Each structure stands twice: as structure tokens, then as C-alpha cells.
């Protein structure tokens, strides 16, 4: 495994790091530690996962050279505001990628927190809660981040990409150090929910498909309409036949992006 270190800002603020060559899932390891009483902040990073997963229990391909990391947090406030941490993570991830690659015009955020490269999925975030065994311990949140640094999985229901398509090569270790610092900066701006309005505005500046026709696949229905905005709670607002709808969870597809020709891979 290549060397993995925290960024200077994260290290100075007392964030800890546990790195593994192989693990079942970085989110699962973070959960085990939370349930054992570790309050975080703690990053779990692994070169390889044997049981990586994404949203809704889907398998997450853990290819060699990619970034697999999870942050354990607690004491951030009421469990009700925990979903906002998904937007925090998405913003921190795209900020780190912009700094590392210098290609802001090719990166975007797909609601709620996927990062796209030229319209194809580059990174994803999995947010999970964990309740420590001791009833007096604070509720914990686990923020899993996966980034396709060296390779993208195949056979997915959506296009995927990786950082090898950019001219500047980026390894997982360098990206993680940058991500850990941007996560600290973004968490500070979020300020346990007090700064979410400002983060919402920042998120919208990176939003893929904003103002365009999108497709939302929800339990029991598929909704098509114009992506208007996200509201103060982070719900996606879509203008569809029959009026405006607020979506709390679902799979979002961007037909306009999918129709664009794929850029050539850089040597």
C-alpha cells in the first residue's frame, strides 16, 4: 500500500488515521469502532475492500489504486442534521479533486453527493449512522468516500470514469491528504448545521443538471422534470408534470450529460 497520511490541517486538529492493506469495508470498520466507544474524528483508509458497498446496499467495486476511506464523527449535533453531512462530504471531495487536478470545469456534483468527471461518476459518498453501545455516548456518523483514482468499474447502469483521464496523474494517497484537510475546512464552515445555508449555495455552483431536464427514479415511480434547486433541507426540487416535487431520496439520471461525447483518454 502506498503511503497514506493526513493533511496538515487535519493532523493539527487532532484527527486520527488507521490505514489497512485489506479490510472488509472502511465503513464497517468505522462502525465497529463507533460501537466500541471511539468518538472520532477518525479516518479509516484501505488499499482494498473485500465487501465495499454503496447506497442502498449496492456493491462498490474496490479496484486497486482507488481511494477507499471513511470518517467517523460524533458530537456534531442532533441526529436529525446528520444527512447534511452528505453535502459536506460532497463539497469537500470536489474541492480536493479541483485542487489536485486543476480541472474545475470538468468536475460537477450530482445530487446529493456524487462527483462527476465529464458527466461520468468519479466519486461517491455513503453516509451511515452508528449508535455506540453506551446509551450516554453521542450519536455517531460515518462518511464513506470512494474515488476512482486509477480505474473505473465496468458493467454499471451509469457511466463511470477515473482520474487517469486527466493529464495530471493523481494517486490515492495524495488525494486523501488533500481530502482530509478540505473535510476539516468544510465541517468548520458547516458548523453543526448553522452554516448549511452558505454550503447549500456553494453546492449549487457545482450542481450538474441544474435548470435542465432530469430523471428521478423513486420507489414505485419514475419522475421526469426540470431540476430547479435544492431546498433549505437539501431536498431536490423538480418541476414536473403536475407541479413541483421535493425529493428526499432517489436515483438521479442526467440525460443531457449522458448524451455528450466522451472525451478521449489522456496518455
From TrEMBL:
Classification via Pfam families: BPL_C, BPL_LplA_LipB
Keyword Protease: no
Catalysed reaction equations from the record: biotin + L-lysyl-[protein] + ATP = N(6)-biotinyl-L-lysyl-[protein] + AMP + diphosphate + H(+)
Signal peptide: none
EC numbers on record: 6.3.4.15
Keyword annotations from UniProtKB, A to Z: Biotin, Ligase
InterPro entries assigned to the protein according to its UniProt record, in alphabetical order: aa-tRNA-synth_II/BPL/LPL, Biotin_CoA_COase_ligase, BPL_C, BPL_LPL_catalytic
Primary enzyme class: ligase
Iron-sulfur recorded as keyword: no
GO MF term set: biotin--[biotin carboxyl-carrier protein] ligase activity
Domain BPL/LPL catalytic, chain residue ranges per copy: 21-148
Top-level taxon of origin: Bacteria
A GO CC term attached to the entry: cytoplasm
Biotin protein ligase C-terminal domain segment(s): 210-254
Protein name per UniProt: biotin--[biotin carboxyl-carrier protein] ligase
Amino acid at each position: 500500500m502506498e503511503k497514506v497520511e493526513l493533511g496538515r490541517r487535519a493532523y493539527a486538529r487532532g484527527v486520527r488515521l488507521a490505514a489497512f492493506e485489506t479490510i472488509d469495508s472502511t465503513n464497517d470498520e468505522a462502525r465497529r469502532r463507533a460501537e466500541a466507544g471511539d468518538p472520532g474524528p477518525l479516518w479509516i483508509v484501505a488499499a482494498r475492500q473485500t465487501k465495499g458497498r454503496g447506497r442502498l446496499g449496492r456493491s462498490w467495486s474496490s479496484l486497486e489504486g482507488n481511494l477507499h476511506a471513511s470518517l467517523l464523527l460524533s458530537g456534531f449535533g442532533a441526529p436529525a442534521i446528520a444527512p447534511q453531512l452528505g453535502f459536506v462530504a460532497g463539497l469537500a471531495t470536489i474541492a480536493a479533486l479541483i485542487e489536485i487536478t486543476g480541472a474545475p470545469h470538468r468536475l460537477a456534483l450530482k445530487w446529493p453527493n456524487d462527483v462527476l468527471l465529464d458527466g461520468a461518476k468519479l466519486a461517491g459518498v455513503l453516509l451511515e449512522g452508528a449508535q455506540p453501545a453506551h446509551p450516554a455516548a453521542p450519536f455517531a456518523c460515518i462518511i464513506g468516500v470512494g474515488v476512482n483514482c486509477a480505474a473505473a468499474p465496468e458493467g454499471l447502469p451509469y457511466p463511470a470514469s477515473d482520474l487517469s483521464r486527466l493529464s495530471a496523474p493523481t494517486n490515492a494517497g495524495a488525494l486523501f491528504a488533500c481530502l482530509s484537510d478540505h473535510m476539516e475546512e468544510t465541517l468548520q464552515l458547516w458548523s453543526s448545521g448553522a452554516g448549511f445555508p452558505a454550503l447549500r449555495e456553494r453546492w449549487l455552483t457545482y450542481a450538474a443538471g441544474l435548470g435542465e431536464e432530469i430523471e428521478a427514479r423513486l420507489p414505485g415511480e419514475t419522475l421526469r422534470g426540470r431540476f430547479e434547486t435544492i431546498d433549505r433541507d437539501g431536498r431536490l426540487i423538480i418541476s414536473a408534470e403536475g407541479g413541483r416535487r421535493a425529493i428526499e431520496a432517489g436515483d438521479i439520471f442526467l440525460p443531457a450529460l449522458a448524451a455528450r461525447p466522451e472525451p478521449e483518454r489522456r496518455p
